[in-house]
């Protein structure tokens, strides 16, 4: 997904669906996901890695991922994915190191509010909604937050492989499901 400061909606109906899922039914007011956003913003400010040189960025990302409370930006997530899919042994090793830290984080890896909005918009798409069962729809309708589980290797019929982000969607009542993007739209993985 390209970086933008504004989420673009296909229609007013799409915007209302996304805002409804986020609990933000009033235009012009910021979305606060059950008071967690202040924590997310605070943590993200402390761990901003933008503009750092590659070696310092690597060490900075290792330090972030080693902490108790981790929040990743879209750039951080894309950086990890790019390393894993680079075809360069050194970069792939860094990507695997990041991925191991994500998988081993006992508190899970949070994402920014902007990424959360994009994730909700993705799950609100008609082709995705058709693939959700009643359990998954209940979780989306009672949405609390996303967590990044890590990156898992995907394969196609030709034997090619790449890494895809695996996400956990958590509802206000604590239920959750895991998914990753797929050619058909979404693949429920847990």
List the helices and strands and how they pair.
Elements: H1 12-22, H2 37-46, H3 54-66, E1 70-72, H4 74-84, H5 89-103, E2 109-111, H6 113-123, H7 126-129, H8 134-141, E3 143-155, E4 161-171, E5 176-182, E6 185-188
Parallel strand pairs: 1-2
Antiparallel strand pairs: 3-4, 4-5, 5-6
Helix pairs in contact: 3-5, 4-5
Mind explaining what this structure looks like?
- The protein has one domain.
- Helices cover 44% and strands 22% of the residues.
- It contains eight helices and six strands.
- The strands form two sheets. A four-stranded antiparallel beta sheet has the order 3-4-5-6.
- Helix 4 crosses helix 5.
Low-confidence runs (pLDDT<50, min 5 residues)?
1-5, 24-32
Counted up, domains total 1
Q: Approximately what portion of the residues adopt beta-strand conformation?
A: 15-25%
First-to-last CA distance: 24 Å
Cross-sheet strand order for the largest sheet: 3-4-5-6
Number of helices: 8
What's the number of extended β-strand segments?
6
Instruction: Provide the gyration radius in Å.
Output: 17 Å
Order of helices and strands: HHHEHHEHHHEEEE
Tell me roughly what share of residues is in helical segments.
40-55%
Structural class, from secondary structure content?
alpha+beta
Q: Can you tell me the overall shape?
A: globular
Please describe the biggest sheet, giving its number of strands, its sense, and whether it closes into a barrel. Answer: 4 strands, antiparallel
Oligomer: single chain
Mean pLDDT: 81
């Amino acid at each position: 997904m390209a970086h933008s400061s504004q989420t673009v909606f296909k229609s007013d109906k799409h915007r209302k669906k996304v805002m409804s899922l986020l609990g933000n039914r009033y235009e012009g007011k910021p979305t606060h996901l059950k008071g967690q956003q202040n924590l997310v913003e605070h943590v993200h400010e402390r761990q901003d890695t933008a503009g750092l040189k590659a070696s310092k960025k690597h060490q900075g990302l290792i330090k972030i991922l080693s902490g108790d409370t981790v929040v990743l930006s879209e750039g951080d997530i894309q950086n990890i994915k790019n390393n894993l899919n680079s075809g360069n042994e050194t970069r792939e090793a860094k990507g695997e190191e990041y991925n191991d830290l994500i998988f081993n984080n006992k508190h899970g890896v949070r994402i920014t509010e902007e990424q959360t909005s994009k994730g909700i918009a993705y799950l609100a798409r008609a082709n995705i909604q058709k693939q959700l069962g009643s359990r998954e729809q209940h979780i989306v309708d009672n949405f609390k937050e996303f967590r990044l589980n890590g990156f898992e290797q995907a394969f196609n019929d030709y034997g090619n492989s790449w890494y895809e982000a695996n996400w956990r969607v958590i509802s206000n009542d604590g239920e959750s499901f895991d998914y990753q993007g797929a050619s058909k739209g979404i693949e429920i993985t847990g």
